[in-house]
Amino acid sequence: MLTSRFELPCRLQSMSGSNSWPPHSPENENAKFELSDQYFIDDWLEKDPPTFVLSGSPGQNLQLYDASVNESGGTSSQQEEPSSEYMCFDYVLLGEKKEANERFAFKTKSEVEVLDDGFKWRKYGKKMVKNSPNPRNYFRCSVEGCPVKKRVERDREDPRYVITTYEGAHNHQSSS
DNA sequence: CGGCTTTGACCCGCGC
DNA sequence: GCGCGGGTCAAAGCCG
Asked: What is the pLDDT of residues A110-143, one digit of tens each?
């Protein structure tokens, strides 16, 4: 089942004063972000206030955790299933730390679609998806021989969100 | 010139 | 078999 902490393949790039998510956008190369900030992913759970929180430090993967579960190891039994099917999928895979985390997705409130996750990606396709005005973009890790792919699209119900799906595990270190 | 994006074509699985 | 939807290929173009 769910554990209280998960690692996401996004990283904080630098320190600064902005509270916005994502922490790094191509349009604003010099954007800096406050490390100590926690990024609430509201709407992910139908909880008020949302209890899932992202945190991280430069060079490390961001961590997603359920703030309603206390650190001292107690696994709270009142955890609820995430409201989104995407997150449901994620939590299971990431929570169990599947060695090759085959596939998982997450949703981020973001104006830009390309989140810098520390890897270099090459775009290899773009498709319109049925019942959605937004295209889906296909990326492959540009490191030779690395099997990882990702897919990026806007949430059709709420275009403020970007859905990123990762597939496969990197067979190398991140590039930055 | 090399690496990347763009874009339409192609392929494949699935339901009718 | 056929059409549709989703995923990928690859030629051409773009850009540093």
From this structure: 566 666 666 789 999 999 888 878 899 999 988 8
Tell me the pLDDT band of A108, cut-offs 50, 70 and 90. Answer: low
Q: Is the CB of A123 under 7 A from strand B?
A: yes
pTM recorded for the entire structure:
0.58
* Alpha-carbon gap, residue A14 to A114, rounded angstroms: 17
Is the Cβ atom of A124 within 7 Å of strand C at any atom? yes
CA dihedral A103, A51, A112, A142 (to 10 degrees): -30
Statement: the CB of A172 is under 7 Å from strand C: no
Q: In angstroms, how far is C6 C1' from A123 CA?
A: 16
- CATH number of this structure's domain A100-175, picked from the four choices 2.20.25.80, 3.40.50.1100, 2.40.170.20, 3.40.50.720: 2.20.25.80
Determine whether the distance from the CB of A127 to the nearest atom of strand C is below 7 Å. Answer: yes
Residue A92 has pLDDT above 50, yes or no: no
Angstrom distance (rounded) from CA A140 to CA A101 = 16
